[in-house]
C-alpha cells in the first residue's frame, strides 16, 4: 500500500492529508456521525504538523464532509458529494474512493505502439519512439461511467504492460508515482462535448443519439517534461464533472 504522505508528491501536504481523510471516510465506509481520528492522532499517524492537519480539516468542514464539535473533535457527516472533481493530479480510483464509490475497470486494450501524431507531439516523441496505450472502461459501483485512454512514452514506463490492468482498483497515477518515480506537477485540461459513437454508446450503455463529455489532459513534471496524455469520454448523467475554484 502506498504511503498516505509523500514529500516527493507535488501536491501540498495538507492536500495529501485531505485525500487520506476522504479515502478513510468514503473508502472505509465511515458512517454518518461517527467520530474520526483527532488532530493529534493524525499528526502522529501521518508525520505532519498540526497546522497541516488543521488546514485539511478546515477544508473538509467547509465542504461538508466533517462536522466540528468544539472540545470533542470531528465527526463524519455522511453527506454525498455532487459531481466529480476534474483534477489532473488525482486518479479516477482516488476520486471514486473520495466519493464513497467502489472503483472498477475493464481492460479494453493495452499495447506499445507508434502513437497518433497528436499524441506523439504532446508527449514530445520523435519518429520511431513507442508509447504505451492503455484503454479502460471505468466503473463506479459496477456501473460503466467513462472510457479512459492513457498514453505514456514507453521508455518512461518500460514494464507497465506487465502489470495486471484487469484489476478494478489499479491506479495509473499511483503506479507512475510508486513504480517509476514520475510525479505529475501541472498540466492542462480541455473539456468538450460530443455525440457518443457506436462503440462508446455500447460500452457506456447509452441510447443513441446521446451526448457525452470529452476530456483531454496532458500532465508535466516540475521540469515541464510531458509525462502522460489522457483522453476520456464521460457519461454526464452518471459521472458529472465539477470544477472547484478558489
UniProtKB/TrEMBL annotation:
GO terms for biological process: negative regulation of DNA-templated transcription. InterPro entries: Bact_HTH_transcr_reg, Chorismate_lyase_/UTRA_dom_sf, Tscrpt_reg_HTH_GntR, UTRA, WH-like_DNA-bd_sf, WH_DNA-bd_sf. It holds the Pfam family GntR. CDD domains: WHTH_GntR (cd07377). Keywords: DNA-binding, Transcription, Transcription regulation. One of its GO terms (molecular function) is DNA-binding transcription factor activity. This is HTH gntR-type domain-containing protein. It comes from Devosia geojensis.
